[in-house]
Amino acid sequence: MVTTRSLEDLDAHSYQEYVATGQGLVLIPAGATEQHGPHMPLGVDAMLSRAISLAAADELDALVAPAFAYGYKSQPRSGGGNHRAGTASLSGQALVLQTQDIALEFFRHGVRRLAVVNGHFENYQFLYEGLDLAVRQARALGLEGSRAMLLSYWDFVDEDTLAAVFPDGFLGWDIEHGGVLETSLMLHLHPDKVDMSRAPDHPPAELTPYDIFPEDPARTPGSGCLSSPAGATAERGELLLHTVRSGIVRAVTSEFGK
Amino acid sequence: MVTTRSLEDLDAHSYQEYVATGQGLVLIPAGATEQHGPHMPLGVDAMLSRAISLAAADELDALVAPAFAYGYKSQPRSGGGNHRAGTASLSGQALVLQTQDIALEFFRHGVRRLAVVNGHFENYQFLYEGLDLAVRQARALGLEGSRAMLLSYWDFVDEDTLAAVFPDGFLGWDIEHGGVLETSLMLHLHPDKVDMSRAPDHPPAELTPYDIFPEDPARTPGSGCLSSPAGATAERGELLLHTVRSGIVRAVTSEFGK
Amino acid sequence: MVTTRSLEDLDAHSYQEYVATGQGLVLIPAGATEQHGPHMPLGVDAMLSRAISLAAADELDALVAPAFAYGYKSQPRSGGGNHRAGTASLSGQALVLQTQDIALEFFRHGVRRLAVVNGHFENYQFLYEGLDLAVRQARALGLEGSRAMLLSYWDFVDEDTLAAVFPDGFLGWDIEHGGVLETSLMLHLHPDKVDMSRAPDHPPAELTPYDIFPEDPARTPGSGCLSSPAGATAERGELLLHTVRSGIVRAVTSEFGK
Amino acid sequence: MVTTRSLEDLDAHSYQEYVATGQGLVLIPAGATEQHGPHMPLGVDAMLSRAISLAAADELDALVAPAFAYGYKSQPRSGGGNHRAGTASLSGQALVLQTQDIALEFFRHGVRRLAVVNGHFENYQFLYEGLDLAVRQARALGLEGSRAMLLSYWDFVDEDTLAAVFPDGFLGWDIEHGGVLETSLMLHLHPDKVDMSRAPDHPPAELTPYDIFPEDPARTPGSGCLSSPAGATAERGELLLHTVRSGIVRAVTSEFGK
Amino acid sequence: MVTTRSLEDLDAHSYQEYVATGQGLVLIPAGATEQHGPHMPLGVDAMLSRAISLAAADELDALVAPAFAYGYKSQPRSGGGNHRAGTASLSGQALVLQTQDIALEFFRHGVRRLAVVNGHFENYQFLYEGLDLAVRQARALGLEGSRAMLLSYWDFVDEDTLAAVFPDGFLGWDIEHGGVLETSLMLHLHPDKVDMSRAPDHPPAELTPYDIFPEDPARTPGSGCLSSPAGATAERGELLLHTVRSGIVRAVTSEFGK
Amino acid sequence: MVTTRSLEDLDAHSYQEYVATGQGLVLIPAGATEQHGPHMPLGVDAMLSRAISLAAADELDALVAPAFAYGYKSQPRSGGGNHRAGTASLSGQALVLQTQDIALEFFRHGVRRLAVVNGHFENYQFLYEGLDLAVRQARALGLEGSRAMLLSYWDFVDEDTLAAVFPDGFLGWDIEHGGVLETSLMLHLHPDKVDMSRAPDHPPAELTPYDIFPEDPARTPGSGCLSSPAGATAERGELLLHTVRSGIVRAVTSEFGK
């Protein structure tokens, strides 16, 4: 039995024994380095996807690989836009290649069950492409049975939880950047990294149904948040974590078996 | 004044005069070759994005470039999945390069206002990356003032229209593949290409909140539709077209001026 | 039996039945968006390769995939050069990837016989590379028996036809850009898209036996045509189409069987 | 003044103020996920390069970006080889693109002084290429004055320190994988992540002066270490850290000014 | 004045003086490693393009860069096909990048006049793409005035020379692989590398007007030659060299000045 | 038996017979076009790796493929830096692709034993990546048993030889650019290409333990040499060649059998 769920903290010999059981399952958290308002740090997306992965790993007897600390370009309609200082992003091709390479490495080790746990909206399609190419390449190289899952953690928040976290009504995932969802999770998981005294409180951003290039800074609130984090609490974060972890565990078990 | 809105039908000399006005605006429809159930053809996404672009072009004095007839891989949560016969898709990198190259060509001609009108959900992030790279490259090459927009046509359907088109309630964009929205638009714009006698009628697909690789064919209804097109009518298609065209015209005018 | 030769107009279920026969044959027209003089539209190359593909498809029981509407950069020695307004071209890598991706998709469907019908001289080597990589990749993925052909339609014009179409002598394929060949075919296939009142009449371009970078606009006649289309007639277009279609049908049958 | 040296823990507004001083300096640690014997975790290279960067950052008033947690393929002559379980590596191109993209992002923010602090031998040339391309691209985009440094931390260990750490004689950098150097640094910086009871003790690996493909597992000792870590102590780690930090601070100050 | 026309034989200091005159001109020969029948070596294309470049360099006061020894995939319609043993070719992308990189390097040195002298038919489009990208990149980097030419040496053989070299009539460039043209040039330039006693004598290959994938070995004569080299002589080679050199010198002078 | 060790001088039919024995071994020399001081030509690295390969080939019954005449960017810490005039280098990706493509071609011919003989320090990691990808691709394509070696010739200089060549003490490989090692080998192998009257004589360069971007010309001595070639003699070159050839022959035989 492994002594830690964190792959980077595990030694290679123990890892090899873990994989040799044939039941190995690796979760890869995918985050970003992206502004999240004045009250939260740049690393929120990697911190949350990693913490959620670790929480799920205990129930799944899985290992959590080092997080992807950089993600695809932040967009104004979901993350404030890539023009903001502090946001440091990969091109699409860099993220695709990274995902493809690393997934294929775990398949090479003998891991046959892999899941990428996404914490940055803009990543999804590039992670998808990377996993698709990795699984195809695994087949060409004779690594039969290599399978992968891709999920974003917020897709596991159910209606009841939404109602509890947003008692005044949920306004949509698109404006949940630096808002109640992420801030609550951070308050529960990394309270020392949040400074609620700096949290902005302004109306939700009015998002346009399109994007423009080069980006127009006026489209994003000065705070960098797309909605107010004022309603965030550690309790709500705990509830969100519980819901998300349960949902992910159920989904992974359902697809990959216990 | 140009005699057609369709760039491929226009001669180069007339095009050059059009661009020389300094007010040139080019719309690029982005579609796909993708199964859309037994009642609709594989080319739906390119047909609709092209028809909508042409409708908007009249009001905008714009030209419509040849459509991107192939799109990014279809996904089970929005298009039925790329494992289906008939769906012929590009890799992410191919779509990014195509978008980047073609956008840069129009900037080279002197066009300074460009809009990609997307008709295939899975394309969006790759079109985004292509436009971002093109605008950046334009700047490096001294093509000052080159600007682009990116939009998906369904993002311009408003609440009133949704209520009219889905009198029993709208169940979400994700299952609108081969359903009432696309079928209605096709019935209005290309009635000869729809065979309602072959339209399936089954409950909406129950989508999982994640993706798996390799794809599991059981996740997609045998019809290839994610919801029933039974409620589709040409009248609803006309209403949708009207709403979408107006919205796009307003958005483009608002960003790029008249 | 399929009800249309045009893949984009066919539904996926009918397509699947067609492929399931094991005799599926798909033709992919490859064109360009390129200036063709003041009398012809920018889409000539895609229009002609598509029309020729459709004509051959009837005899071959084949399907015609959506045309590649954008091609490789126009060159002064065959197409007037890529500096001209209206010409919107792909980089080599974009065209290679597109060809490779789409060919592989048809192999994945179960199609084992594929032909790219080229209508833009500059495309050839990039289409070649794309097909070579696709067939190699198909082998790596276990898609045994996947085969492809590549042809340019003008390579099937025989001596008798040349003599009939160019009674004053044929001056070479290199200057047949916007000249008698293409214009005649367009007059036969798309008469409404040609305006002979705008056709230039000037001596053939004197091509240099080399290329220069950046391009020198003085190398190309102002009209954009490399020779005069004055001798073009719909009858000559019909003859050309007949010859080309017969040659392609014979070639495909000879390689792929009936 | 920033409240943390760790960029991922800093909020974007504070970061922007830091950069606005015009004196911003960002250090990017580059590590790997690579076997380091039975006594040390897979994340050693990222842990050490990050810890060393943080130590230097205090003296340099610099910020430390999120570490590159994955590196180029491990090689038998410096890291045991990429065939080992647990080692999860990037292709060269993925690492080059990641480096190029992220460096360019910091230049875009206004940072003009950047240093990559490498902790994995095999990374060096790919980091070099990435920085070379980023600086070239910065010039093309008008980001004048953008400069970068690249260094591997062990290149700052001086002769005196070597003599103190290896009292029986230093046998060369190539076999210092999982040996006294890395283990001592880990014992000083992350003692809880080292288990000396599992440390192997065997003669140094006899490295061949060449590489072979596919790799021959027999070339690497079963332990995964290329030399014995038996002589490692936290005191030696402290000495190494002190030397390396001082050297890096001197080098950066010398090139970039104070 | 430089003491050799061969760049690889020149020292860097002399090269720098040469470039500093502002009149530097560099010729890059582009060849291939490709079967050329039983009587000629695999390196013919690089040998000939290099020898022709050297001959022209004397008159042009130019330098000849190291030849591209590997070319794009041999094709049955011009070189016998890439399936033959001995033919070792680059992918299209590798040749494009090599051309782009090396051309840009000479521009960086201060050379403003560059010419690629091609000796392998299949290379042309990829060399074209590489030069186009290099010149574009040079502009982005501020290397103003960077210009390049691209030519294939056989395009400078005039009618008189053809009549003299092929007294029985010239059958077309496509079958001139391993035939009279190349063999004559080799007999004149590298007589020790030709063994006429092994020269095949068979009718010209009957080329199909299309290509197939994977290649069909039956399309190429067993000798690997597409026509008989029986009529080759050193005298004809001398005449060819004279014609080609004069033509190239005239062309380069005409474009780049004396 | 082949009549030459130089692949480019061999005809394809003889090559095919050689490969058909099943014992084929191909050596690929990898050089660069790089300044080597005022006394030596730009092509030193390709000349030496090729000459050493030819010397070893005789004993190994191997063939020597055309050398890679262009290498990865010269670096100040090993080759003087890529900013110098005369140095014309490939990007990393171009060198990786070239290596991958060409290695795979020899595997396709039936060669199962391949060795790249490197003569330019900066190439190593990119050659490594190319061979790794080629061997992986060979496996995917069913070319079983394809194996490759990679070596740099100086890694075979033993202690005795070092002592003889550097009687005053060896100062390290990093400064052996344009110094005694390369100059001695050139004096032995290509005496006509060395002009000792132009050889600089200055103290060894003091290399920094890091790199900077953009390069600082002041880091490299004006001569371009990193140490003085004053002690170079043809006799020392002969000794070096003897040692290196023997070492390479032993290594190749040991891995690949006789």
Task: Describe this structure as you would to a colleague.
The structure is a homohexamer of 258-residue chains. Chain A has 258 residues and is α/β, with parallel strands linked by helices. Chain A has a single domain (7-206, 216-256), classed as Rossmann fold (3-Layer(aba) Sandwich), CATH 3.40.50. Chain A is 39% helix and 9% strand. The first copy, chain A, contains seven helices and five strands; from the N terminus they run H-E-H-E-H-E-H-E-H-H-E-H. In chain A, strands 2-1-3-4 form a four-stranded parallel beta sheet, sandwiched between helices. In chain A, strand 1, helix 2 (44-60) and strand 2 form a beta-alpha-beta unit. The longest helix of chain A is centred in the last third of the chain and has 23 residues, at 234-256. The model of chain A has no long low-confidence stretch (mean pLDDT 96). Chains in contact: A-B, A-C, A-D, A-F, B-C, B-D, B-E, C-E, C-F, D-E, D-F, E-F. Chains A and D meet through helix 1 and helix 3 of A and helix 1 and helix 3 of D.
